[in-house]
Amino acid sequence: MYQALYRKYRPSSFDDVISQPHITETLKNEIITGKTAHAYIFTGSRGTGKTTCARILAKALVCEHPVNGEPCLECDNCRDMDSGALSDIIEIDAASNGGVDDARDLREAAGYTPERCRYRIYIIDEVHMLSKDAFNALLKIIEEPPPHVKFIMATTEIHKVLPTILSRCQRFDFRRIRAEDIADRIEYIASKEDFTIDREAAELIARAADGGMRDALSILDQCAAFSDNITPEVVSEASGLAGMESVFVLTEALLAKNTASALEVVEDVYSRSKDLSRLAVEMIGQLRNVLVIKNVPRPEGLISASAADMERLVNIAQGASEEQILFALDEFGKLTERLGRSMSKRVELEMTIIRVCKGAPAPAASADPALTEKIARLEQTIAQLRAGGMNNSYQSSVASPRRSNIVAKEVITDTSKMDPNAIVPLAQWAEILEKFGEVCPAVKGTLHGSKAYESNDILLIVTDNNFFLQLLRNKENAQMLRQTISEVTGRNYKIRAKCTAAEDNAAENKLPSLLEKAAGEGVVTEVDN
User: How buried is residue 285: exposed, middle or buried, by Cβ count under 10 Å (0-12/13-18/19+)?
Assistant: First the structure.
């Protein structure tokens, strides 16, 4: 029966694993010295060798005649491991066996001694799929397993694994496989099979695989079924890639703001039934390459491209601004998020292309300098009031002696009871609002942006929401507010409230006019019921 290439050429020893020497050398040294851990966790993107290394490690641990940390591949244990007949090595897919009952069964079975080998080894793939209860059920045995038990776990989403599990494992992070290594491996496999492949085609497959060897070999399998002689054109036709020429033409058209040419590329790709979602991903990779060239003097080590493609990318980068490239990247990033739920991928792609060709929207016109200055002075005034009252800077920049008297009127309705020289913002007002929101959230919501001032035993609340005054007429609401203020400040104030909804909002004149009206008849609501 035909066997898929990624299964047929799966590495059987650490030396066969590519692009992960920091992991394979460490594991080999542990086996040679006999200092292996009781629990391992392998993490990294898909197709980077996590499960493969887990199997090789398990095989080396039970091998009867290991050689330099590698399994011999010839003893009964190695052969039975390869055929899946070794009962002491148990592989578990947590995606379908992630319940707490499965974890309890595993915990109980781990107590039994191995049938043939030195160890009973559990390989748990996609371990992040275990439920929280399942993790907790395994926690104790992973922390202190019997001497004959070892755990090897693999995951693509390490952040979903409980920290209590992670802290009890040796962690190995698998890197994405380099495109050059993938291309070399593809050429090696082609030399062993009955098909040929161009180096450029191998590099195209490597770029499409995005660092995953399994994805690369799956694409290669598909291409080999399409033709015995694999060229870049065959890769594009067989795998659904738009083709490098289409990607280059579209990139050039976008950055040249040639909408018609860009839309013609979409028509061509669409008529050939290519995957538009994959085209969007290819464009992100291409724009990233252009951006790198724009910012790095020697980008060869950061970009996987042939000499001809590199020259073309350099020409594109020279003819575009960095702002254009960043805007295009941002738009295509948003596009990839929308395509998954869109009814028409073509329309979404075309709309993105038109937006990119038109360019980023111009920034809003700058505000009038005089108005900006007034707003800045007002913000400074508010900051000074919040910090603890009117200081000399405020009085000199905003308030004249006449206005200073008006300021006093904002927070008093009875000059015999309030001392104009002792009027200050209430420092604990934010804390009061937070606590008041816990007991009376409906009323607290109407106090957004409000301020409170105190003078002796009087407290004035100033808000721009008239609905607050209506709610405050309810005795229960008023009592809860008074009680909250008392709990936070430790004082019993006579509370007054003032609405400024109808006041003039001019930046410089707002405060003085408000203070004059606050002392007028009928503008202050008494809360003391």
Answer: middle
Which 8-state DSSP code applies to residue 158?
A: G
Residue 112 contacts by C-beta under 8 Å, 6 or more apart in sequence?
120
Token pair 């002392």 in the structure block, residue:
519
**What are φ and ψ of residue 230, in 5° steps?**
-90, 120
Q: Give the separation between CA 496 and CA 385, rounded to whole angstroms.
A: 19
- CA-atom Rg of the chain in angstroms: 36
CB 53 within 8 A of CB 16: no
Residues 6+ apart with CB under 8 A from 73: 12, 13, 79, 82
The sign of the CA dihedral 93, 96, 99, 105 is negative
Q: What is the pLDDT of residues 28-83, one digit of tens each?
A: 999 999 999 999 999 998 889 999 999 999 999 999 999 999 999 999 999 998 88
The b/e string for 261-282 (b: 16+ C-beta within 10 A; e otherwise) is ebbebbebbbeeebbbbbbbbb
| β pairing state of 494-499 and 424-425 | unpaired
pTM of this prediction exceeds 0.70: no
**356: which residues sit within 8 A by CB, 6+ positions away?**
254, 327, 328, 331, 332
Residue with tokens 């209506």: 470
CB 485 within 8 Å of CB 459: yes
